[in-house]
Amino acid sequence: MVATVLSAQCTDERVNQVTRSLFPKYPDAASFAEANLTELEEAIRPTGFFRSKARHLHKMGERLVDTYGGEVPATMEDLLTLAGVARKTANVVLSNAFGIHDGIVVDTHVKRVTHRLGLTDSKDPVKIEKELMTILPHEAWHAFPWRLILHGRTVCKARRPLCGECPISNLCPSKGDFD
Q1: 42, 70, 98 - which closes a domain
Q2: How far is it, in rounded angstroms, from Cα 169 to Cα 166?
Q3: Model confidence over 54-69: pLDDT tens digits?
Q4: How many CA atoms lie within 13 A of 89 on its CB side?
Q5: CA 96 vs CA 59, 93, 175: distances in Å
Q6: Most buried one in 36, 74, 92, 110, CB count within 10 A?
């Protein structure tokens, strides 16, 4: 959950670098709740927006300790009460930590690729999630966004999509719009 909060407006590579030293220093909810905010900010500075992210992590730690006994809750409703947690983060946690697939992760890659594939024209991630939930069978809700994320990172890139190398270009109404 912490890594997902840190991933906002940041690359996974950078988050992975930061969490290598962050998690040994802050191994649990109580350590985030008790963290010196300035030290926490410095620890996560490379992820960008470090002041707001540090506040979120600190408040999240406090709520986890005070309300949930230091454990991450396993419901969307409870996760959404945590600072810095919106549907994307809650879906990541529910799906990957608990095997609960009540929604679909919608990040920047999922948003971009679903637009290009003509699956949605919405800009709102919550609306995109709801639309995808009506299109996809429930058993695809976990794997589908991770496949789109990988596809968006490697082939259907934001600035220069590799349409000529795309294995699903025959399905794409946007093919060639970027040449």
Answers
A1: 98
A2: 5
A3: 999 999 999 999 999 9
A4: 23
A5: 23, 5, 32
A6: 110
Q: How many domains does the chain have?
A: 2
**Alpha helices, H only, the chain:** 2-6, 12-25, 29-33, 37-44, 50-68, 76-79, 87-98, 108-116, 125-135, 143-154
179 inside domain: no
The string of DSSP letters for 110-128 reads HHHHHHHTTS-----HHHH
What amino acid is encoded at 165 in this protein? E
Instruction: Quickly state the pLDDT bin for 179 (edges 50, 70, 90).
Output: low
**Domain range enclosing 147:** 108-171
In the block, tokens 């095997």 appear at 99
